Amino acid sequence: MYKEYKISFESESNNAHLLITYLAICVGAVILDLETHYIEPKDMYLLCAFLFFLFCLPAILVHIDYYLVNKRDILRWNSTDNRFIFKHGDEIREFSLNEIRAVTYFKSIPTARGYRRLYIEPVDEYNHAILTLNDGTKITITSLLMNGQNINFPIAPEKIEIRQGLFRWVIGPSLKKSKLINE
Description:
This protein is α+β, with helices and mostly antiparallel strands. It has helices at residues 9-36, 41-70, 109-112, and strands at 2-5, 74-78, 83-88, 91-96, 100-107, 127-133, 138-142, 160-164, 175-176.
């Protein structure tokens, strides 16, 4: 039986819930201050702008980027025979667990170091992995595609590498064949 992964409203909200919380706090603080005038409006706007650029903007950029990478992708995994089907646009790639040569995870610093529940910044909710197959094909799988979960496939630990960093736009498209795309 195949388990299917694709971007949905649920997967986007699972990744962005901390981002939504920060945005709600900023908007709520501005509305509250408009009523109480506890802080000068100019100072409140500067504080909210600072918090937005520090916490929210990087997460928004990562979210948009991850969405664009996997927006129409579908990953199906059959846990019985460890077979995968990855659909990216018109391309369909089938492979088995044994065909995965390496998996490189890209995570935020707290997540990469194992501080799983100490999320401070909204970007800590995001991660992505690049599966490198034996034929050189690289498949990018983001946390939006995986519904905010880590990839929990039974991959041998010696094939896994964890790196710190979330901004994947330097990596390229989600399905990269070494013969077709030489970047």
